[in-house]
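dumping this here so i dont lose it
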């Protein structure tokens, strides 16, 4: 799996200026997966092999007939963000910060292949020749992951996707190119520097093609600077100048956070805004 130190060394060797912040934060070894977490190995025709999904059902699921929204966590493998955020999100639900929801971790394997679109940058092509099949990963989610979850569990038809860095880049791309894929898009420090910021440069035209629909987009970024920030600024300008009808969106930079801390600082806040817990009933 790609790690930021590898990328930083490569950039130093080339004298390049692209940001060295494309990797996930590491999961602390001491964090364990909840005992009732459900690990699935799902055959995938789209991806050409069995893929890992992880599921955590809300408290009281088995005893109820209620339907629940679904939160999809990208980089949601057992060796990725699943241990940390399955625990944190469950605790937030139990504390009344987030409405009860089904949490699904979608594992990634080759993040540059699965989370990015094809680049024309020769340095990127040389470093990751297999990159750029985010459209296939979206198809995997659309045709295999979501139908499986919706057929196996009591889902309400409302769903969200959340992720950081390259996963957040994928989320922004999915929002711009396939806005009906999810109801809520929660992107933390998306790597919008990718391919010379081409996604943000195309944002205005892609937004203009959106049909009306109720969707939510929440964006944040740490103290990234450079092409990370300029790509975000361009995306935010496009949203301000031409928001699609029905879109509820917000951009709240967290410049006191770094690329490695911003996800932990914003994930629960974003999810509580996507799925606020119901007000307690007073007698």
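and the seq i came up w/
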């Amino acid at each position: 799996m790609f790690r930021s130190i590898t990328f930083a060394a490569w950039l130093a060797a080339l004298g390049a200026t692209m940001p060295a912040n494309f990797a996930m934060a590491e999961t602390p070894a001491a964090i364990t997966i909840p005992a009732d977490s459900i690990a699935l190995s799902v055959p995938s025709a789209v991806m050409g092999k069995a893929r890992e999904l992880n599921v955590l059902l809300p408290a009281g699921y088995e005893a109820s007939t209620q339907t629940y929204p679904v939160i999809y966590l990208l980089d949601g493998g057992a060796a990725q963000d699943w241990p940390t955020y399955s625990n944190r999100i469950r605790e937030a639900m139990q504390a009344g910060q987030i409405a009860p929801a089904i949490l699904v971790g979608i594992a990634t394997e080759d993040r540059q292949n699965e989370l990015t679109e094809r680049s024309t940058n020769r340095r990127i092509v040389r470093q990751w020749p297999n990159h750029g099949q985010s459209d296939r990963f979206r198809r995997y989610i659309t045709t295999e992951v979501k139908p499986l979850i919706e057929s196996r569990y009591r889902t309400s038809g409302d769903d969200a996707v959340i992720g950081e860095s390259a996963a957040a880049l994928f989320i922004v791309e999915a929002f711009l190119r396939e806005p009906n894929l999810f109801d809520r898009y929660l992107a933390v420090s998306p790597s919008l520097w990718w391919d010379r910021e081409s996604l943000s440069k195309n944002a205005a035209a892609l937004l203009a093609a959106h049909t009306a629909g109720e969707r939510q987009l929440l964006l944040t970024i740490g103290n990234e600077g450079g092409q990370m920030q300029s790509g975000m600024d361009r995306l935010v300008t496009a949203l301000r100048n031409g928001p699609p009808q029905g879109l509820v969106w917000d951009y709240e930079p967290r410049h006191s956070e770094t690329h490695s801390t911003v996800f932990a600082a914003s994930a629960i806040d974003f999810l509580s805004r996507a799925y606020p817990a119901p007000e307690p009933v007073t007698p």
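The first helix runs from residue 4 to 14.
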